[in-house]
Design a protein that fits this description.
The chain is of the alpha/beta class. Helix content is 27%, strand content 25%. The chain is built from six helices and eight strands; from the N terminus they run ααβαββαβαβββαβ. The protein has a five-stranded mixed β-sheet. A three-stranded antiparallel β-sheet has the order 1-7-6. The chain is globular and about 40 Å long. The chain starts with 5 loop residues before the first helix and ends with a strand.
């Protein structure tokens, strides 16, 4: 069963609301976000004590004119060519951050692959399958959600592909 703080019990983020509505088991990891930290993902791994290969960042890219979500370990980088190939595209580039924020409904550094304002094609790095659970943003800076990668894949209808390097 999900562990919920008082904030989640009173509504939570769109990501935690989506998880609860789907009946998915998850754990919340909250921490005090440091605005001076150079990397949101690395900060999440350090603050939660979860290995960086199990903490995944959510990136929004433009693949042939279609915004696409890429979920990759914070320990590595997104391979844009592999992302494009995973969705049958030819060319990928990182999306404009303001457009990513408007489209997903989340702020940069807090974009979750779950509960987005507009459902976008999603690709989850294949390395996620090697873990019983992974962490992704729960929809705001300083809040991570830990869940089974299969649940994340199912809820986001993600393609599983080797898109990290």
């Amino acid at each position: 069963m999900a562990k919920k703080s008082k904030k989640q019990q009173s509504g939570g983020t769109p990501a935690t609301v989506a998880l609860t509505a789907a009946g998915v088991t998850y754990t919340i990891h909250a921490y005090d976000h440091d605005p001076s930290h150079p990397s949101y993902g690395e900060e999440a791994a350090e603050a939660t004590g979860v290995s960086p290969d199990r903490v995944f960042k959510t990136l929004v890219a433009d693949v042939d004119g279609t915004l696409t979500v890429a979920v990759v370990p914070v320990a590595g980088q997104l391979d844009l060519k592999a992302l494009a190939a995973a969705v049958g595209g030819k060319r990928a580039a990182m999306a404009d951050p303001a457009l990513a924020e408007r489209t997903t409904g989340y702020v940069r550094g807090g974009i979750s692959p779950l509960g987005q304002r507009k459902k976008l094609p999603t690709v989850l790095d294949a390395s996620a399958a090697a873990h019983a659970t992974i962490c992704v943003s729960a929809g705001r800076r300083g809040l991570e959600v830990e869940l089974a990668p299969e649940d994340l894949q199912k809820l986001t209808e993600a393609v599983l592909a080797p898109i990290g390097r």
